[in-house]
Design goal:
Layout lengths: L11 E6 L20 H14 L3 E6 L39 E5 L16 H7 L4 E7 L1 H14 L3 E10 L7 H11 L3 E3 L2
Parallel strand pairs: 1-2, 1-4, 2-3, 4-5, 5-6
């Protein structure tokens, strides 16, 4: 895996996608084994902090009547309502205060799986001169997938942190199909 030689360096950023309380076990929209991404991500956070490299995190930040919720005709239970306990970063993630926080799906009538959809993430990455993203988080088959595909379309190189993603798998195999789609689009997978 030549892309990983020497670990993260200039032009790299860590992008943590939606590692929020509501997506963990006992959350309102629990991703199976979603808590298993925390330790690998903490290790990556440590590596990026030690190297003085940027870290960004996306968050679902929904209004209470968001269009993705079943009561409004959407597909999902109420989750990640802005300023609620379920919208907080996962306990134990140890997201540094310096991490850039990107809020998405903040408008009632607009859903967004990608961290780039309707946010300033691309502008933040450009200001930080980021060329390659190390991506982990939740869920593989929704927000990670769409964020990675948008990143690739925008010209970033993407390293998908396989140990730090988990899928909803509404249909069996959705997570593996999402990984295959990301790799086919140009992402490179890391097992650590």
């Amino acid at each position: 895996m030549a892309e990983l030689t020497g670990g993260p360096g200039p032009g790299d950023a860590l992008l943590i996608v939606d590692v929020q309380a509501d997506f963990l076990p006992d959350g309102s929209l629990a991703v199976p084994h979603g808590d298993q991404v925390i330790d690998p991500l903490k290790a990556w956070i440590g590596r990026f902090e030690a190297a003085g490299l940027p870290i960004f995190a996306t968050f679902d930040w929904h209004p209470p009547d968001h269009c993705s919720f079943r009561a409004q005709g959407g597909a999902w239970p109420v989750h990640c309502v802005r300023d609620s306990p379920g919208a907080r970063p996962a306990d134990g993630l140890a997201l540094p205060a310096s991490a850039g926080r990107v809020l998405k799906a903040t408008r009632r009538e607009v859903d967004a799986y990608s961290g780039f959809a309707g946010t300033d993430l691309h502008a933040l990455l450009q200001r930080a001169a980021v060329r390659r993203l190390f991506v982990g988080g939740l869920a593989t088959d929704y927000c990670v997938l769409q964020t990675v595909l948008d990143a690739l379309r925008l010209g970033y190189r993407v390293l998908l942190l396989r140990a730090a993603i988990r899928a909803v798998d509404v249909q069996a195999g959705d997570g593996e199909r999402a990984i295959a789609a990301m790799l086919a689009a140009g992402a490179i997978a890391s097992e650590d």
